[in-house]
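Help needed: design a sequence for this.
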């Protein structure tokens, strides 16, 4: 009787599985909201996970109206500084930067990121950007994080692009002018109960074999040469290896975008969600935070990006009723 065959795990849709070049996340598509103008994204640092109890508000679930336990991820989201405006034009090769305007006095930590000693002139640059209004296809904001306000061991910020959506190009440019040089909080863009899409890089696990990478069955102990490998990787003819054969290679540190992650809580007092002693390998959440239902890719301290959901699910737009948040760890009792 033949031994049971274990099919490999993993989808070929994510191949080739290599290390990402965009460890801070990359957003290639932005939604087109009806209301506007408004910012469509934000960024934060993953602090850790906890669990909480909420009242289920989905009428399609059998637990509707009952108190349920859910896992949640806490994201440290310090206010972001709007440091530049970019105007894009449409070319035969896609969107290209037409012109940009920087704030008058960038922070000294931001200058370390830019490596630019020239002093910008916002008034002159904005006048030039306004004159090119007929060619502009999109308006985006260059926003800088403020890791010095978190428990991160760094001061140099991360720069991300955030698209401004809704309204006309003229309204978007006026909206961007009012934001230049100011700081925006996560509560100005998102609200509890809303769905967001998250982009980031997964945990890196290095070079791994096919058993851990693809979940294939370990061979019997009398197998030739190896037991943690594929028995036959190719037929005698044609002498080629099919792409569906599980092989060893890079595992983790892959770029992923997860859609429809629900925002459970948004607050400005990190003590309400920080466990006793702080999150493992992160520390204390000192200011603004975002609590996402479920898990989020990447380890602690990893930068993750949010955007408005492109295909939001139909759930109540009101904030879910949170009855309990775990902030204390149980101590082991020695007998």
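Sure. Designed sequence:
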């Amino acid at each position: 009787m033949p031994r049971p065959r274990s099919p490999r795990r993993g989808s070929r849709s994510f191949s080739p599985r290599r290390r990402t070049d965009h460890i801070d996340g990359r957003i290639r598509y932005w939604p087109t909201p009806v209301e506007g103008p408004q910012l469509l994204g934000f960024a934060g640092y993953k602090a850790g996970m906890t669990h909480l109890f909420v009242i289920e508000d989905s009428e399609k679930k059998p637990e509707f109206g009952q108190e349920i336990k859910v896992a949640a991820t806490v994201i440290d989201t310090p206010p972001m500084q709007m440091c530049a405006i970019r105007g894009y034009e449409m070319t035969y090769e896609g969107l290209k930067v037409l012109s940009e305007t920087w704030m008058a006095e960038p922070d000294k930590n931001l200058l370390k990121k830019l490596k630019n000693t020239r002093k910008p002139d916002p008034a002159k640059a904005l006048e030039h950007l306004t004159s090119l209004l007929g060619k502009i296809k999109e308006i985006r904001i260059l926003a800088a994080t403020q890791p010095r306000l978190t428990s991160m061991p760094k001061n140099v910020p991360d720069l991300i692009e955030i698209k401004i959506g809704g309204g006309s190009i003229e309204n978007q440019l006026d909206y961007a002018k009012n934001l230049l040089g100011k700081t925006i909080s996560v509560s100005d863009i998102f609200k509890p109960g809303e769905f967001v899409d998250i982009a980031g890089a997964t945990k890196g696990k290095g070079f791994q074999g096919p058993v851990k990478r693809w979940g294939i069955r370990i061979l019997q102990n009398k197998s030739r040469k190896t037991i943690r490998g594929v028995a036959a990787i190719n037929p005698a003819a044609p002498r080629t290896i099919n792409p569906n054969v599980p092989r060893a290679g890079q595992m983790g540190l892959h770029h992923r975008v997860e859609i429809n992650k629900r925002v459970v809580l948004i607050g400005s007092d990190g003590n309400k969600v920080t466990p006793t002693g702080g999150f493992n390998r992160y520390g204390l959440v000192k200011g603004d935070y975002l609590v996402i239902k479920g898990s989020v890719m990447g380890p602690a301290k990893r930068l993750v990006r949010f955007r408005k959901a492109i295909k939001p699910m139909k759930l109540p737009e009101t904030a879910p009723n949170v009855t309990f948040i775990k902030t204390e760890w149980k101590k082991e009792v020695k007998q």
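The chain has a mean pLDDT of 90.
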